[in-house]
Design brief:
binds 2-phosphoglycolic acid; alpha/beta; 8 strands; 248 residues; 8-stranded parallel beta barrel; TIM Barrel; 11 helices; globular
Length: 248
């Protein structure tokens, strides 16, 4: 049985004061969560996460990282830096990175490999746009996205990744995929993973992301292949985030 994972993606939101209140609110209610919980904060606040969350059941991670190990890459953050600040997870290939920063399937695959070699757990994001869904290309698009990653991984490394299915049209829009529709894509993704390593595919967590909130989390998380959530907007309010964790 896969333990559920609820991951908050703060995106480019927060401040020292707001984060302190949010983390205190979450920590106060989470002595022993029945699922794994991670918050993915902007890089400047990872030190704050480390200070506030060390010793709690909540772990923290980053929203992106450099594909390079170190050196002359102005503005980039390396895996070693993330490890220095106690990160366990890193989101890779979020659709906002793909759309606004030109991240290709190939770059996402290389970043995934880099994260794994550093000992970080990559949360690899895939998802189709509305136009792609309407053109009936969903399975093909997410298939290409996940295959690019699978091609660069050893079969044994598969067990160490987390996948997040985030339909682009559902992110931040309030339009959630129906549980059935999300489940269909999760099943497609798990079948793809199984072509690489059938045993490991059963254990890989596949998160759903895209306007998951306290009202729709229960139905989504009840689906057999939905193993948690990657939560944007609802992760910025302690109460909402906690409700989703409780549901999980
Ligand atoms: P949302 O974002 O929950 O605000 O839709 C999810 C995400 O982009 O990870």
């Amino acid at each position: 049985m896969r333990r559920k994972l609820i991951a908050g993606n703060w995106k480019m939101n927060g401040s020292l004061a707001a984060n302190a209140a949010l983390l205190a609110g979450i920590k106060a209610e989470l002595a022993q969560p029945a699922c794994d919980v991670v918050v993915c904060a902007p890089a400047p606040y990872l030190a704050q996460c480390k200070a506030e969350l060390t010793g709690s059941p909540i772990v923290w991670g980053a929203q992106d990282m450099s594909v390079h190990e170190f050196g002359a890459y102005t503005g980039e953050v390396s895996t070693a830096m993330l490890l220095d600040f106690g990160c366990k997870y890193v989101i890779i290939g979020h659709s906002e990175r793909r759309a606004y920063h030109g991240e290709s399937n190939e770059l996402v695959a290389r970043k995934t490999a880099r994260a794994l070699s550093a000992g970080l757990t990559p949360i690899v994001c895939v998802g189709e746009t509305l136009a792609e869904r309407e053109a009936g290309q969903t399975d093909a698009v997410v298939g290409q996205q996940i295959n690019a990653v699978l091609e660069t991984l050893d079969a044994s490394a598969l067990a160490k990744i987390v996948v997040a299915y985030e339909p682009v049209w559902a992110i931040g829009t309030g339009k959630t995929a129906t549980p059935q529709l999300a489940q269909e894509v999760h099943a497609v993704l798990r079948a793809k993973l199984a072509t690489k390593n059938p045993m490991a595919a059963d254990n890989v967590k596949i998160l759903y992301g895209g306007s998951m909130n306290p009202d729709n989390a229960k139905e989504l998380l009840a689906m057999p292949d939905i193993d948690g959530g990657l939560i944007g907007g609802a992760a910025l309010k302690a109460e909402d985030f906690l409700t989703i964790i409780q549901v999980a």
